[in-house]
Amino acid sequence: MEYLEQRRDRVEERLRDVLDDVEPTELAAQIRHVALSGGKRVRPTVAVLVCESLGGDPADAVDYAVGIELVHNASLVIDDIIDESELRRGTPAAWAEYGHGPAIIASDGLLGEAFALFSADERAMQTVAESMVELGEGEATELIAQPANETEYMELARRKTGALFRAAAELGAIAADADPYTVEAVGTYAERVGVAFQMRDDVLDATADAETLGKPTGHDAEMERPSLVEVTELTPEEANQRARDESDAALEALATVDAPDSQSLEYLKDLAEFVVVRER
């Protein structure tokens, strides 16, 4: 685990450096509240591990890793406002702590800092812009055109969660100067991991307790949101199997990448398996 912690620590250190430069101080405090309140840092870790597994210097992927985490956090701020969720990662959501207006400004600030980190590379900018279009379409779908079956749910999960996972992996490949085929392959791997991650989230919302999960549970059923369990009426066990199927597809995509055996590659494989058994 020391290997993984070293890479996460490098991302965390750079994240704090970026946030230390935010002005004015009121905005900085709000952004820090959101970005430093915990989180698994899965997406930035994917970016760094992909870069390293493809022979790149992980240091070259750190800015992209921090950027994709900031984009993710910006989306969570808006999610909590839409859901009226007062708790995020065991701490008050941004809107509950500061109010709706400041929370929205904090989300904008997070995006601004993120795109400053991507701006040095046109490919990185395009990758993230495309993922944000997908994310926005997913959020809109969830609000106004909710899926009514499993096929429609899968498309929502791909856009809402898979898109940022894909972007994280593709950014890592771009940092390693990988060829387009490899960028696409690791993107497919990560997108599948993201969809499995969302499926597991849906199961946890239906079955876990709030203290263990670190956020309110039962929201999907209460708000009639299109979770896998609510849309399909699958049992939690059946929904978990669907997530495992996505995890297996992710591993198949990763196997097509021409990358030597390495610790970073093994951790990418482990991640695909971990997302379907996690308890938080």
Please tag this protein with its features:
single chain, 280 residues, mainly alpha, Farnesyl Diphosphate Synthase, two-stranded antiparallel ribbon, 2 strands, 75% helix
**CATH topology (level 3) name:** Farnesyl Diphosphate Synthase
Task: Provide the CATH superfamily.
Answer: Farnesyl Diphosphate Synthase
Biggest β-sheet, characterized? 2 strands, antiparallel
Overall tally of structural domains: 1
Give the class-level CATH name: Mainly Alpha
Structural overview:
The chain is mainly α and 280 residues long. The protein has one domain (2-274): Farnesyl Diphosphate Synthase, CATH 1.10.600. Helix content is 75%, strand content 1%. The chain is built from 14 helices and 2 strands, in the order ααααββαααααααααα. The protein has helices spanning 2-20, 25-35, 42-53, 62-83, 94-98, 100-118, 122-144, 150-175, 180-207, 210-213, 219-222, 228-232, 236-255, 263-274; strands spanning 87-88, 91-92. The protein has a two-stranded antiparallel sheet. α3 (42-53) runs antiparallel to α4, α4 (62-83) packs antiparallel against α6 (100-118) and α9 (180-207) runs antiparallel to α13. The longest helix has 28 residues, at 180-207. The protein is globular, with a radius of gyration of 18 Å.
Topology (elements, then pairings):
Blueprint (H helix, E strand, L loop, with lengths): L1 H19 L4 H11 L6 H12 L8 H22 L3 E2 L2 E2 L1 H5 L1 H19 L3 H23 L5 H26 L4 H28 L2 H4 L5 H4 L5 H5 L3 H20 L7 H12 L6
Antiparallel strand pairs: 1-2
Helix pairs in contact: 1-2, 1-3, 1-4, 2-6, 3-4, 3-8, 3-14, 4-6, 4-8, 7-8, 8-9, 9-13
